[in-house]
Each structure stands twice: as structure tokens, then as C-alpha cells.
Amino acid sequence: MISPLLMALLAVQGADGPRARDLGVAFEGTPAPLNAITDVAGVEVGHRTLNEGDDVRTGVTVVLPDGRRGRNQVFAAWFTLNADGEMTGTTWIEESGILEGPISITNTHSVGTVHQAVIEWSVRNVEGLSWSLPVVAETWDGMLNDIDGFHVEREHVFEAIAAARGGAVEEGSVGGGTGMRAYGFKAGIGTSSRLVETVHGTFTVGVLVQANYGSRELLRVSGVPVGQEITDLMPEFGTAADGGGGRDGSIIIVVATDAPVLPHQLKRIAKRASLGLGRNGSVASNGSGDIFIAFTTAVKNVGTEDDGLYDVRMLGNAELTPFFKATVEATEESIINALVAAETMTGRNGNTVHALPHDRLRSILRKYGRLVE
Known about the structure:
The protein is of the alpha+beta class. The protein has helices at 4-11, 90-96, 111-125, 154-163, 226-229, 263-271, 273-279, 321-341, 358-367; strands at residues 44-52, 56-64, 73-83, 98-100, 103-107, 135-139, 181-182, 185-186, 189-198, 201-213, 249-257, 289-300, 345-346, 352-353. 54% of the residues are buried.
């Protein structure tokens, strides 16, 4: 069990430091007030960060569509752009169109531990639950983290869930993103949101990413080839050779909305995360696991009981284009927010991954006429 004091400490998560917009990076679209996935009402995010000793740089991040106290049963869909990665529970989502429980993100070798822990938490905390097929996704943090040390434990998952809340979301080297890198820079967790105004009302699209992918020369920020401008500050190897240092890596993308859409429409929305990924320079390389999940909070407690009748509304397919655009924009910004928030980190074997330098980023954007002064 988690002590009340620890729960209180875990709950005090904040989003410190500048974000991409604060540095003058230009993005399209209008974000909701928090510019985070938690702008979708009811969605909560929690992290448990493990940054210990010389070689533990990992953790777990959870996204709860209906918060810690909800059943978290909502319409959902998933999509894989390139499949060198893992997201459990997706076969049932594909079959049923329903997500049941938290979405957890961790490192590659901790999926099993997190999976079992989420089941245990669900059995203990969700009334009437008789079975669970959790969604657990991963990216590989083995350059900075002792990934074979299995440092993520069941208690850490419980703590991440206990820490979950709405409001500002901590970004960068936190939770599952602690040891992650992208485009040769330190990265991790990032988030963003967009308001979508329609004749049927104003809705929100929110995105959260765990970014751990991409080659430096491909990095583009606001359309500017930043990766070709910053050719130094590459990852450095310390006391031992690291055969995994050149791995392509992966990215997990979670898309949330409050719009009344059905699973087949969420599948279409999830696919559009690919275009946001492409804006920043990804080519979905052979060794990258680019896996996305989308859900809507418009209908809650849509369970898998044997009977029942639901009164469900849906937007017409012709109304979805603004949601596609919002997903592309929020995905693009979430990734850059992850890069901007992360700080230089040294981990396993003395390996070091440098942060994206804010001053040089601003200078390059200014050079190309893309800096918002």
C-alpha cells in the first residue's frame, strides 16, 4: 500500500521550464488552456520516475481516460505505422472498439511487470471487474538505462496511478520517458492539445507522446532543418561499447478527444498521428515501433457486459477533417515539447545524451525566419 504522504508527494507534479512555444517555435492551430492531453476533461496523467545511481534511468507513465476513480471504459482504436515495438491489449480493442483501464508506457523489458501490476490494481480498485487486458506500450531506453536490471516494479506502477491527475503535465525526462532520446537529443514525454470548433460545438483533441526515435539529420522544427544545423552534441559513449546505441528507437502516441466519434472514426484519427510525426522528420524506419492509440471520453462506462442498450451520438465522417488536422498539429508540437523539456543526461556505462540547446534552436529558427519573437 502507498502511504498518504507518498501519495501527496507524488501528486505534486508540475510542468517546470519553458515549452516550445515559450522559445518562439511557431505551430499551427489553437491549443486549449493547458496545451496538454489533460485539456480533455477527465483525463489524468501520472508518472513514476526512476533516476537512481549511475545506471537506472527509467520509469512508467499512465494515462487514464476517466481518472483514477473511473472505470475507464471508453471507445478506442489503435494503429501501427511501423511494428518494431509493443502495445498490449490491442487485439481486443480492434475486436470490441473499447478500451478498458489505463494506458501505461514504460521501457521495452518492463512491459510484463507493468501489465501484471495494472491487472492487480484494476482487480483491487475497479468494482465488478472480473478480467483485464491492459494496454501497455514501450520504447527502448537501453543506452541510458540498465534495461536488463528490471528496475520497474509493481509498486512503481501503483505509484504512477496514484499520482495521476489533471492539470499541467510534466514533460521531458520523466516517467516512461526518463531514459529516452529522439533525433540524437534527450527526449521523453511531451504533450499538446488543440481546440476544434464546429457547427456542433467546440471540442478538444489532446496528444501525449513518449518519443525515442529518429536520426539527427532528419529533425525538423517548424519546418526548419534543425538536425542539419546542429551536427555536434551527438550521444556519447562512456566506459563500454554500446551495441544498442544506434537503434532506431520508437514512439508511442496517445490521442484523446471529447468529440462524439465511434471506434472506426477513432481509427482514422489515430492514423493521422503519422502525419504529425512526419512533420518533424520521421520516416518510420525499419527498427522503429511507431504505435498509436486514440480514445474518446464522449461516452463513458461503455463496458463489455452481455446486454445493455447505449444511446450514442456520432459526428458524420464529413465532420472529421478538423480533428485530423488537430491530431497532426498536436502530435507535431508534443514531440518538440518533449525535446525542449528534456535535459542532458548521463546514465549506463557513462553514456551521455545531450539536450536540444534552446539558444541555438532560437538562433536557427530566426535565421530561417521562423522564430516567433
